[in-house]
Each structure stands twice: as structure tokens, then as C-alpha cells.
Amino acid sequence: MKDMSIEFAQKCSDQISDIKYKERYIKSKGKYTFVPDTPQQQCMKKATTLVSETKYKEDMKKESSKCLYAQMPATIDTVFAKEISQVQSKKRYLQKYDADKGKSSYSNMKELPDV
């Protein structure tokens, strides 16, 4: 009959043993256990979707595609602001520049103006 302390030491060494650990790992390899979502994990998932940058950017693109001038009633101030923004638009400026390129009023003049 073995002593209790020796049996305890053997059990401890078996549990700590690297060989036994690797055997259990190899046996469990390929077996997957899914952990059910806890309320904390569900809360975290919801928070990440709310904070998600992609969702934020998608919403921003949808909002920015709506023209604010179309939503506002046409007043003198809004019409003026719309015209000013179009004049200041670099894209419109370049389009007008490309369209007018080579159409100088001086080259089309038959007589030079008196200075």
C-alpha cells in the first residue's frame, strides 16, 4: 500500500506532465466547442457595430449625397449661395476653362479697340 502523499505527488506530476498534456491536445485536435454568447459579448458586438467606422462613413456618404439646397426653400439668399458655391467650385472652373480655351475675344476681333 502506497503512502497518500506519494499518490498525491503522482497525480500532480501526471497533471503537470507535458506528455499527457500533449496527448490530450492531440486527441482534442479537430474537435471544436462553441462558447455561447454571454450578455457581455452581445453588448460588445452591438457596441462595435455602433462605433464601426465603415457604418459611420456609409451614413455620412448617404447624407452628403443629399443636396442641402434642394431641401431648402428657394429664397434669394439660398439662390445666391448656390451660385457662389458653383462659381467657387474648382471642377466647374476647370470645365469652363477647358471649354473657353483658345476662344480669346482678342483673336476674334477684326479691329483693335482704341486705347
**Element-level helix/strand string:** HHHHHHHH
Question: How much helicity do the residues have?
Answer: over 70%
The total count of strands amounts to 0
| Terminal residue distance | 128 Å
Low-pLDDT sequence parts: none
Number of helices: 8
Give a short account of the largest sheet.
none
Oligomer: single chain
Class by alpha and beta content: mainly alpha
Provide a descriptive summary of the structure in words.
This protein starts with a helix and ends in a 7-residue tail after the last helix. It has eight helices and no strands. The protein is mostly helical.
What order do the helices and strands come in, and which of them pair?
Layout: H1 4-16, H2 18-28, H3 39-51, H4 53-65, H5 68-71, H6 76-88, H7 90-100, H8 105-108
